[in-house]
Amino acid sequence: MKQSTSPIKLIAFDADDTLWRCQDYFDAAQIEFERLLSRYIDIGNTRVAERLLAVERANIALFGYGVKGMALSMIEAAIEMTDARITASDLHRIVTIAKEMLTHPVELLPGIREAVQAIADVHDVVLITKGDLFHQEAKIAASGMAKQFRRIEIVSEKDEATYARLLEQFGIGAHELLMIGNSLRSDILPVLALGGWGVYMPYHTTWQHEAGEECPADHARLACASTPADLPAAVAELVRRAG
Question: Is residue 14 classed exposed, middle or buried when 0-12, 13-18 and 19+ CB atoms within 10 A define those classes?
């Protein structure tokens, strides 16, 4: 670790929708999914998005997070909602949508590379992301940012138990970790609950499974950033409070 007198020893970054665009592709896939189903059902009266989300949530324990789990859930939901009338060619289209998502270019958020480097010049930084191992590894490699992080962790879930395990591996206390991310549910609240610090940088769109949590008002260990350019100042402010 860097030799530093800072009370916060490690800065952790989320990846999807914190470093690069992600949810936009899932939103586009859902629009295409609904277009396919409109050939078979009245999507205005069948709560397609709500029913698909229910299937995805039920399958997370089996398929995990990511594109592959989404595609399997779409296929299951499509068969159920059309009473098995959906054609093989339309099911194949769902598979094609997933393949396109797995190979789309990695588009970094404007200014994020510079923000990560500015923070890494002062603190040790790590990457903590969840999702499909192969896809996350591919996106990290394509981003060109891997060398900026001292360590990269790809986990199946982001909850208190996972962060507690990582803290033990990092050899630091929760009060020495600061997590930066776009999801209150996955990136911020579990770390705050353990006694750590957080910088919340919301993205313009959020998967409904990750939504529904409220940002703690005036939390002493939480700061907010509107853009990547705001991150170094937000981190510096929390370091000041910690000291």
Answer: buried
